[in-house]
Predict the structure of DUF7946 domain-containing protein.
Amino acid sequence: MSELIRVKFDGGLAGTGQLHFYEYSRSQYAMARFIATIEHFRRTGKVAERITVSSNVDIIVRSPQRGSFVEDLLIPAIQQGMATVLSTPLSSLISYVWHLLAPRSETTDQAVEQFAKIRIAEVQASVAIEEQRTQQLAIWQKIVDGERAKASDALELARWALNTTNVAVGRLGHSQQELAEMRDELEAEVQREKEFSDHMDALEGVEESTMNRLTSRLRPMVPEMALPLRRSADRMSMSHGEPDTTYANITPSVVAAIQDRDAEEIVVELIGHVKSYDRDSGVGKVTSEELLRVLNFVVPLRDRARLRDRILEAMKRERVLLLCRRIVDRSGLPTSLILIDLDLDPNGTVALTSK
């Protein structure tokens, strides 16, 4: 059975079912290369340098509908008996790739922490605190203390902030549109985690260096895919076509963030302190004298089980040795890290076991 990917542009001219033709045609060419590159990787395990007849995918496009500019792409199912390297739906692989290309923004992370502070104050002001509220207070306090919020907890806080009349939220200075964008960003993050969580075994088989080559190849395609956001639309999304299935929510700020970041090929050593780590998402926070600020790090899927216990032990140590691939902005400053390995002894050495 074919797999459906719905590409949708909203706002502006797109709201009338129209787009500027030049932007749209360039966007579709980039989208075709983006999907063909990921599908070729899913089937062969190789990152195509260019799309040829042998690496192309026979994608079928359905006609747009009015009321937003909607386009359905039908990806043919892999025929029975046909070899494939990754036995996952294409949407699961796209979700994981997008998870790496566009992690949660720092603005949203910081806002969620402020929302948690306000919620704690609001709930504690109540006369009676139920047991369920006590559990929520504990979750919010961990966020305030610097632990990165799980996607579901962050989404709950963002939805609350968007609808609350609490004046403390207004004092944070976020407009309703900005709050709505945070909610949409987190809804897509939750959906992405659902998409690839059922296929972790297959995705864990992909080496970090291979996935890094794939994302580096795809990164420059994103601005072209999103060209209609210049004049014709305000936002773009990718989903299964059903309500609440959006796994990529794309705005001009998301595109800018992807453009401004790049993963370095070299792997570097860093001495620092692991401040927090979420075992479910594989994301944590690290501080170091070598860094200008606290940075998020992500552990590749294939390395999470191997590194889990050492990361948890590292949180108890003041300093450990981290082996990382840096994600840097255009000025060359790191914005986040990919954790490859670690040594609990800051003076130790780490072998490239995952390479």
In short: The chain has three domains: 3-86+206-260, 106-183, 262-343. Residues 12 and 233 are 5 Å apart (CA to CA).
